[in-house]
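Memo subject: From amino acid sequence to discrete backbone structure tokens
Action wanted: Derive the backbone structure tokens from the amino acid sequence.
How to read it: Take the token row as a discrete description of the fold.
Attached in line: The record itself begins immediately under this heading.
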Amino acid sequence: MSINANNQQSNNSNPLTINCLPQPLLLGSASFTRKLILSQMNIPYHVVVRPIDERTLGDRTMNANPEELVLLLANAKMDKLLGEIEGGGCDGELSDALEVSSASGSELDDKNGMESNNNSVNDNEKEWIILTGDQVVTCQNRILEKPTSISEAKQFVSLYATHPPSTVGSVVLTHFPSGIRVEGVSVATIYFKESVAHSTTTRITTDETTNNEGRDEGGPTDDDDSRPMDLVDRLLEQDAPILSCAGGLMIEHPLVQEHVERIDGTEDSVMGLSKDLVVRLLGDLKVRLDER
């Protein structure tokens, strides 16, 4: 799930700079919302993704622990990406990241007003901070991931009217090449109005472009049809990627927002990447690195 998050970070606070950690961050996720949140945090990043077969990993049975699942998946993504980096499979992408970082380093230093620890293309040993994550939705002790069909998405939504779903999101950070790793989980609960499961009647006009003779302008004809449309139908009409979202809903979408009563937790956590968790883990990673 995702929702437009307020920028809770000062415009001058880049947590990588504050902790004297290498930049840019390597983001092992193609998620639009995670990229948006990192931008809001003023964290420079470069996307390097190596997909895994998520559905073959972990326990998704009734009453399974969702925190264990999202940590397992985020660590599996991290292991896959680290293996590619160590084996040279990401050299081209890392070179691109270094070149962009080198070109923008002065601008970043001026913007943050602090010394930056950006990598240089000429460094003998490259250092990276890598971030991976995962998110699931839980409802009625069930773990809900991305729906596999429109029908399943509708089943999910019908549950939300009477059983508030929770988002469970993990973050894993690793320093390369030391291999030092930290991880954490954030949880938020969304309370929907009962209207989220209701259908509305929508008129479908099948003869809009033909001759209007014999009817009043704007009035119904025998060619007009009406059918009930639920929230998923309305989202599909607007090309919302419901099959790409954990739990089947993009919370930031206006059609969904009108059915949200309240959220317990932070909006960015619902969005898929808790800012507070990222900041805390970067601090923990810095402490671990200093203890080496």
Remarks:
- Strands lie at 25-27, 45-47, 128-139, 142-144, 166-176, 181-192, 200-205, 224-229, 260-264.
- The longest strand covers residues 128-139.
- The radius of gyration is 23 Å.
- Residues 2-11, 106-116, 118-124, 205-222 have pLDDT under 50 and may be disordered.
